[in-house]
Specification:
This protein has helices spanning about 15-20, 40-55, 70-80, 105-110, 120-125, 130-140, 155-170, 190-200, 215-235, 260-275, 280-290, and strands at about 10-15, 25-30, 60-65, 85-90, 115-120, 145-150, 180-185, 205-210, 245. The protein is built from eleven helices and nine strands.
């Protein structure tokens, strides 16, 4: 892997809030891997972009929602390596008018990185892999060498980032190992990597994914596919169903939409323990941790 992330990240207890939640909770602070590289994304990119560099890529293509953390992280990591970022972003109507004007958030950072941005509708995004391959074909015709990274960096190679993270976690908690590891799940790669890494490290506990969008059957199928590929291509251990679970009962009212209960927990986590979570992913993982006891 390349060395893009600031590792190892610390593990910190949520001292006060865990009392009211009725659970012993520790947080692995992967938000500290690098502020502009989006937490968990950069661990995957260390492996994916190492492969891109190895094959002599000139451009990196990936996809996500209009304010995608993964796309922002990929754009900035690619720039640090002298690669041209190309992003396929999903918007309501697939039109430039859908972008915030003036640019804000990750869109602003994408543009600041000089990423070439292509837009598509939610319906068109269902064919995102085909669309990215067509973008790659166009670049090849111009003499470029494109490298395509799937949504969220979620494939066997990207999952290696969280295989390594699981080994890191096991070593850090050797004196007081956890009984479960919970992660918000939006594309499946982080969950797959954690499950593979925990098993490889010999810690017989499940990796639990808190679905933030699709249902558990969708994510279970993704994790199995990634795990089979990692086993066959990379020699990682084969997963069985007891190695991971997906919980989809607490998605709330939808992806990137928050309930009053979730926002209250987000506020309380910040005020009581000084831990900043986000409303799309990590607050739902925290909510699930409390439910697990």
């Amino acid at each position: 892997p390349l060395r893009l992330a600031r590792l190892p990240t610390p593990i910190e207890p949520v001292n006060r809030l865990q009392t009211t939640m009725g659970a012993s909770i520790r947080v692995k602070r992967d938000d500290l891997t690098g502020s502009h590289l989006s937490g968990n994304k950069v661990r995957k990119l260390e492996y994916l972009l190492a492969d891109a560099v190895a094959v002599g890529a000139t451009h990196v293509i990936t996809c996500g929602g209009v304010q995608s953390n993964h796309c922002r992280a990929t754009a900035w990591a690619a720039r640090s390596l002298g690669l041209e970022p190309v992003l396929l972003l999903r918007t309501a109507n697939g039109a430039r008018e859908d972008l915030p004007s003036p640019p804000t958030g990750n869109v602003l950072l994408d543009l600041l990185a000089g990423a070439t941005v292509h837009l598509c509708t939610p319906e068109g995004y269902r064919e995102r892999d085909d669309r990215m391959e067509r973008l790659a074909d166009g670049l090849r015709q111009d003499g470029a060498v494109p490298y395509v990274i799937p949504e969220g960096g979620s494939n066997a190679l990207g999952a290696l980032g969280y295989v390594a993270a699981a080994h890191e976690l096991v070593e850090q908690t050797r004196d007081d190992p956890p009984t479960s590891v919970v992660v918000a799940t939006g594309s499946g790669g982080t969950l797959a990597g954690l499950a593979l890494g925990l098993k490889e490290a010999g810690l017989s506990i499940p990796a639990i994914g808190m679905a933030v969008c699709d249902d558990r059957f969708t994510f279970e199928a993704i994790v199995r596919r990634i795990a089979v590929d990692a086993h066959q291509r990379l020699g990682l251990p084969a997963l069985v169903d007891s190695d991971f679970h997906v919980i989809d009962d607490y998605r709330g009212i939808g992806y990137a939409l928050s309930t009053a209960e979730e926002l209250t927990l987000l506020r309380d986590t910040a005020r009581v323990d000084g831990l900043i979570l986000d409303p799309v992913y990590t607050i739902k993982a925290m909510k699930t941790s409390g439910l697990l006891g």
